[in-house]
Design goal:
Layout (H helix, E strand, L loop, with lengths): L2 H22 L4 H5 L12 H21 L4 H23 L3 H25 L1 H6 L1 H20 L1
Length: 150
């Protein structure tokens, strides 16, 4: 398959799933009524941040497959994608912030494992995941604060 076609497929898959999950599990009245910490960002910030992150996640995923990198990296990329897509339904749809905290904690561990493993074989992919690690670290703290406050 042409490398540009496969890159487009990765972008369409990641962005499409992200948009679908974001639309199907949009924060509603339940979330609006929750007590939130002082560091909770305004709602408008989430869409642009996730758009940029999903573009980077798609590119990194494509690199991992296109470059024929280790099976471990492929598994970690798939694992983080699954955990990423699982968090919103658990938090927003099921309204289970404690379970969502467990999911996002596992996501953070998977991301750190990916960065560690990719650091030697594909430094660019590892570096491109650092903003994702930072955002998920922040989101983990936000999720934990919501659990504590509610």
């Amino acid at each position: 398959m042409n490398k540009y076609v496969s890159l487009l497929l990765f972008v369409l898959f990641v962005m499409g799933c992200g948009i679908a999950i974001g639309t199907l599990t949009a924060p509603g009245l339940w979330y609006a009524a929750l007590e939130k910490p002082s560091f909770n960002p305004p709602n408008w910030i989430f869409a642009p941040v996730w758009t940029l992150l999903y573009l980077m996640i798609a590119y990194v995923g494509w690199r991992v497959w296109h470059m024929g990198l280790s099976t471990g990296l492929k598994r970690l990329w798939g694992l983080q994608m699954g955990l990423n897509f699982f968090w919103s339904p658990v938090f927003f749809a099921a309204q289970m912030p404690v379970l969502a905290l467990l999911v996002i904690g596992c996501l953070l561990v998977a991301l750190l494992a990916f960065v560690k493993e990719a650091w030697h074989s594909d430094r660019l992919s590892a570096v491109m995941f650092l903003p994702y690690v930072a955002w998920v670290s922040f989101a983990t703290a936000l999720n934990a604060a919501i659990v504590i406050l509610n």
